[in-house]
């Protein structure tokens, strides 16, 4: 696991809590060093501070997503909603706001890793097909018209849940709970993941065919198969 934060105190506290939880931890003091260590050590997860001098966390996240789908948990300043949304759009899996409880961060990290390593909720049904969209839950991979989709852990889980619950409208709160097991969380997280998912599976994300908005409720998946 890799922790990237320019604050030495934060790095030390996070490292100690994660190590107490049984994780092996590497630390980096800036974005450049973080990218170097990531390339060398290939960690299972990255905890990434957004506000760093030089190469900030959002740029580091963007570069990571060019080559990897490793889970990323962002550390953001309280009230910096734009940074949180930008990070989720870039493919971050979760975020914790500063000042934060190290225990909460450790729990979030464990949850993200567990979701990344375990088969999705739909794994028991085997391969799923909806027209030109095919999901392989055991491999946690999906293709559209034969081309592989680059999906984060959160995006894959959301898509798998939608495909296995066609025609049912779910609120954002229900999706937080049912897809990711969050008993609390920012509902904008769901909005951002839906937007990113549409960009990857819809021919025209502005006029979605599969992931429909149900005004006053949330979202519904409409299969295209006959």
Structure in words:
The modification 4-aspartylphosphate is found at residue 49. Residues 125-223 bind DNA. Keywords: DNA-binding, Phosphoprotein, Transcription, Transcription regulation. With 226 residues, this protein is an alpha/beta fold. The chain has two domains: 2-117, Rossmann fold (3-Layer(aba) Sandwich), CATH 3.40.50.2300; 123-221, Orthogonal Bundle (Arc Repressor Mutant, subunit A). It has helices spanning 8-20, 31-41, 57-67, 81-90, 102-117, 153-163, 172-180, 188-201; strands spanning 2-4, 26-28, 46-49, 72-77, 94-98, 128-130, 133-136, 141-144, 147-148, 169-171, 211-214, 218-221. The longest helix is centred in the middle third of the chain and has 16 residues, at 102-117. Residues 120-124 have low confidence and may be disordered.
